[in-house]
Amino acid sequence: MRLKYMRKLPCSIGKECITVLRDCALKKELCTGNIVHAHLLQLGLLDNRSHVANSLIDVYAKCGDLLQASRLFQSLPYRDVVSWTALIQGFVRHGHSQEALRCYQKMQDEGLSPNALTLSYTLRACARMRAADKGQEIHDVITKQGLLKSNIVLGNQLVDMYAKCGALKKAHHVLLELPARDIVSWSALITGYADWGHGQEALSCLADMQQEGLSPDAVTFTSILAVCGSIGELGMGKYIHTEIARRDLLPNHPALGNSLVDMYAKCGHLITAEQVFKGLPVPGTIAWSALISGYVQHGQADKALDCYKQMECKGLFPNAVTFASVLKACGCVGAAEIGGQVHEVILKEGLLANDYVLGSALVDMYTKCSCLSKAHQVLEQLPAQNVFSWNALMAGYAHQGRSDDVLYCFKQMQSKGISPDAVTFSTLLNICSHNGLVEEGQMFFGIMSSKFSIEPSTEHYTCMVDLLGRSGHLDTAVTLIKKMPAANHSVIWSALLGACQKWDDVHVGKWAFEHAIQVDKYDDTAYIVMIKIYTGAGLDTEAERVKAMRAEARHEKAQRHCVC
DNA sequence: CTAGGGTTAG
């Protein structure tokens, strides 16, 4: 049947060929594409018919045969913007965003200007790569060509690109300036706010959207439910649930069921999560994983493991995400045996190769089950080690007080080319603090910012104050605190106060106490420690004064409590 | 001739 087209005269063949090829692209029929390609070559029709060649590139690109697409593209004597766009589209669609951006550049080097479709795909590549700068460049081109007026899709992709890059203000601004916006624009922004941990803003966008008379649909609901789960907005979650039921959206949108289970599970309402789960027509891997993860997150690791067993009995296939939660559950209850079985399945299915979370989940599981040598061995054999897997192992050694091993890990990870992060330094400073390793601690604190450009957090400062204080270097601790950008956290002052008590330092103690109650007037421990310091130094009048202050603070706090 | 935007579990 296909040959029928080939027997026609060359001049009439073009249009019909394109129809066939478009069909191939739509149905991802690579074979048919190959046959047509062969015939076109035989008839010598590819050289002077760029439209046909472009359609063929599109078939290869859509089917994921990017090598063929590129080869054909290279062989063309004449390439236009459509050829480039078809190729770029293929790269973006199959996860080669970097290559797509390279093509975009080369196309311009050849003197061709992108059209709306080219820009659309390129924007998507920027979003995937979190390349806001390149995205901004595309944005400028779009503005210059005045494309936003007639093309709502481009506008929405711009919002999505900025949102995915975490440039949320910019995304919001672009959305507000669009000549026309719809629920897709808002959904992109809402998802962005949610992904970057701004749940409240996400909800306020939903309100703004409704204010404009736009009503959320199934996709909007999935995003909103994710927000509700992440910030524990059970009330809103329940409201969305009733809306979904009222509109009877579940039968046609199975993803919504998963989102509902996840929302209830994250909010800790596991009974409702189970109810919704049981009401699903066919609970799939995602729904099961959401439930398992919910149980783990809310301290019911045994139930999580029960779920996992049931899931296996039902013949469902757990995947990398499921295993990550199951391994966490194993770590929580010390189920090394189940963990080991899961490990074997993971190896058999080759899941470690393309998942960067699972490796550290394994190390963490063995660590928590006190199988440290096994954890270390697993880490060594990971196809891709990362900072998370090393942190997990180091935390395990630190937990057992094995400071030498922690320090050895720190060297090892760097020799493997992996940079430490803020968590690594927390572990390091903690172990130094607990082992009186003053010089080492100071060295780590120094290099974390100088060599690794990690801004010390309150936790890091607290570790250092603790380390210096415990070892009697109170003056150095004071100097450090004075250097802090904002020493307005109680933990800092309690660390220093504790040290003052240990070393009977009334002077520094008084200073620390004053700051401590400035930060938190009702910090009872601060009063108690200060009273002890004064009493220990024989300063009874001062001790009495602080006792009176404490009584007043307690009284005031109790009263405030009543009012509330 | 290239297309059809925002989406769920760690």
Give the structural class: mainly alpha
Instruction: Kindly state the percentage of residues in helix.
Output: over 70%
Bulk shape: elongated
Largest sheet: none
Integer-rounded radius of gyration? 31 Å
Number of helices: 33
What's the end-to-end separation, in Å?
Answer: 81 Å
Beta-strand proportion: under 5%
Summarize model confidence as the mean pLDDT. 91
Q: pLDDT below 50 for ≥5 consecutive residues: which ranges?
A: 1-9
Please tally the β strands and state the result: 0
Describe this structure in words.
With about 575 residues, the chain is mainly alpha-helical. The chain has a domain at about 295-380. Helices cover about 75% and strands about 0% of the residues. It is built from 33 helices and no strands. It has helices at about 1-5, 10-25, 30-40, 50-65, 65-75, 80-95, 95-110, 115-130, 130-145, 150-165, 170-175, 185-195, 200-210, 220-230, 235-245, 255-265, 270-280, 285-295, 300-315, 320-335, 335-350, 360-370, 370-380, 385-400, 405-415, 420-435, 440-450, 460-470, 475-485, 490-500, 505-520, 525-535, 540-564. The longest helix has 24 residues, at about 540-564. The protein is elongated and about 105 Å long. The N and C termini lie far apart (about 80 Å). The relative contact order is 0.03. The structure holds one DNA strand of 10 nucleotides.
